[in-house]
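Preliminary data (for renewal application), zinc ion complex.
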Amino acid sequence: MEKYKNRKWSGEKGKKFGKVGRTDDPYMPAEGQEASICTSCQAVYQEKRWFFDEKLYQKLAGTEKAREVTCPTCRKIKDHYPEGVLTLSGEFFEEHKNEILTLLKNEADRVAGRSVADRVISMTEEGKNRLVVETTTEKLAQHLGRAVYKAYKGDLDFRWSEMNKFVRVYWKR
Ligand SMILES: [Zn+2]
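Predicted structure:
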């Protein structure tokens, strides 16, 4: 009886049955809202997809048309949950540290500008000739490693963990 009631209620709202999983989506905007927005990185969520659209964000921000959330990428950064770690080391690295850092930052900005998921969490210098870069995706760690390799050659090595979606990338020169 209870079930029947629920169904009838859904039916009255004009919803279709069979869209299992929709309600499990934690970023889903509420009924009547146009989108969800991330208030930390200004990403927009529509049709189950995160993207950047500055105009749309500005239009929706602070209005009832948008649900304010923290996107999965910003959450990963907040919770410090990297899926990729790139370690750069060597004498050549030490000598060319500034140019390599600039290359990394430019590449990271370029990728992050078009993809909400790929972002650098941290860049930490460990001593004079070692830098550790943590990224939100394994893809970005690999991408940055390849970019440095393409520009400066050296040795590039990837190590995936078997259990998780996690990669360690090592570049040395
Ligand atoms: Zn965000």
